Amino acid sequence: MRFHRVIGAAIGLAGFMGGAMAADLPVKARGPAIVPIQEMNWTGLYLGVFGGYHDGDITQSGCVGLCAVDPHLRGALFGVQAGYDYEFSNRVVLGVLGWVPLTRPRETISIGPGLDFHVRPRFAAVVAGRLGFAFDHWLPYVMGGVGFADVRVRSDVTGLEPSNHYTGAVVGAGVEYAFTRNISLDLRYMYSNAPKKTYDFGGGLEKYGENASNVTLGLNYRF
């Protein structure tokens, strides 16, 4: 009878010691810790750079003498942009942006041998508002505003270089994706209209304007 009691006490002591040792051992992780992705908030200032392509159709009326057939202004764009967005509690995002190409397309329009006109945009800019809806790190949006341009055209025939300042409407749409809270990529399409302005190359008054499509990809740093 004493033997059974001794055996029972030994088993109980072993169980107690085993439980105590197990309590001292570190708990083995069952898998990697899941870190929740931080929800994006689009409120704030941003600065960025962009590159893209300008495809413009030059409009004309009152042409004097030989006239260009279907003239264009096409080429690459590279520049800077800046803006400010505010995200409301319902995820609607309202913002304002400025867009300035530092390099602009140039075009030589030939209407015959030695009869060349060199189109040289000297300045361009866009100021616009945009309205979007945030899907966390995605921000699709529409935009509308005003475009400005200063264009000089040189005639090889007369050597004259008349210039004009343009102001016209700009509309567009795009989608921006935030890789982090501070870095985002912005794909945008903009349509711009420059109403016709008067030029005099020495033979009489002529009018020229432009309708253009601009596709750009920008990289922004958001503060």
Question: What report would you give on this structure?
Answer:
The chain has 223 residues and is mainly beta. It has one helix at 2-24, and strands at residues 44-61, 72-87, 92-103, 107-110, 116-133, 138-155, 163-178, 183-200, 205-222. It has a single domain, classed as Porin. It has one helix and nine strands, in the order αβββββββββ. Strands 1-2-3-5-6-7-8-9 form an eight-stranded antiparallel barrel. A hairpin with a 4-residue loop joins β5 (116-133) and β6 (138-155). The longest helix has 23 residues, at 2-24. The chain starts with a helix and ends with a strand. The model is unreliable at 1-29 and 31-37 (pLDDT under 50).
